[in-house]
Amino acid sequence: MRKYLLLVLCLLGSFNIFGQIDIATSTVKVIGYWNENDSRIYSISEDKFVITGSDTTSREHVSYKVDIVIIDSSPNSYTIEWSYRDYSITTDNPLLKKLSSIYGNRKVIIKTDKKGSFIEVVNWKDFKKLISKTTSILKKDFPGLKQKKAIVKSVKDRYSTKEAIEKAAIQEIKQFYIFHGAKYKLDEQLVGQTTVLGYGGEKTFDAKYTLSLDEIDLFGFNSVIRIKQEVDSKQLTDEAYSRLSKLYVESENVMPSREDFPPVNNTIRYASRIHNEGWIVFSIKTKEISLESQINFKSRIIEIQK
Predict the structure, then answer these.
(1) Which of 95, 129, 158, 306 has the highest CB neighbour count under 10 A?
(2) Contact between 10 and 23 (Cβ < 8 Å)
(3) CA–CA distance, 105 with 67 (Å, rounded to integer)
(4) CB-based burial of residue 293 (10 Å sphere; 0-12 exposed, 13-18 middle, 19+ buried)?
(5) pLDDT per position as a tens digit, 146-167
């Protein structure tokens, strides 16, 4: 049945009814076809766990919902509100539970270009309130916490400036729009160089990527796009060795030589099913960092609800 539908469409020349899907050239343009007041609800879940050998030594799970609304549509851009709610976390870390209660209900207003590519966070100054609230709670509820200064510094680094917020504090938003604004060809693999953020957005590392449009679903009016990023192992290992060296100095232990230090590897994968109108149907990001027999694994799933 599908091949007959495709044949009829080709004979009629009705390629434009698919908007960003061009049947004749097997290409897809990922563009936001949105109107003011358009809205969707998404569920987002994040998992982090550490595998040492064959054992899972620690695990954290976070889930929440986001109401996404197009609050303004101009000839050149969209202004979009992300409202977070129903935040839930499973962890043995009481500090993380407390901090999560602060970040669980917030609004992020962003701007994209007319194609849906991310431009900036509009209400970045509102995040300064989070810093003040976080500091107050840490002082009140965790008076003897040794890592308090480091935690406050980490929050400030992530939320104190517009650039910092856009780099490190809105990773789920960056994931949502990562494929917008470009054109992709079915089964054509693109290879190139990019940069990725390190922990907390403090440093960037070189990475090689491969990108491909793997599927065009004519019945569902959507497509599947994937990207794989392999971070430069030497740069990662140098950074890890540098950080550990500082800890060893503080503890007065003997640090192994750089030559004997095991390599650190980091692979990041994105896969998104995107509707013809530019809304994400399903998206997953995975990040795997390995050092000898230990693997740190993170995943984030974004799924449309209605």
Answers:
(1) 158
(2) yes
(3) 11
(4) exposed
(5) 665 666 667 777 777 888 888 8
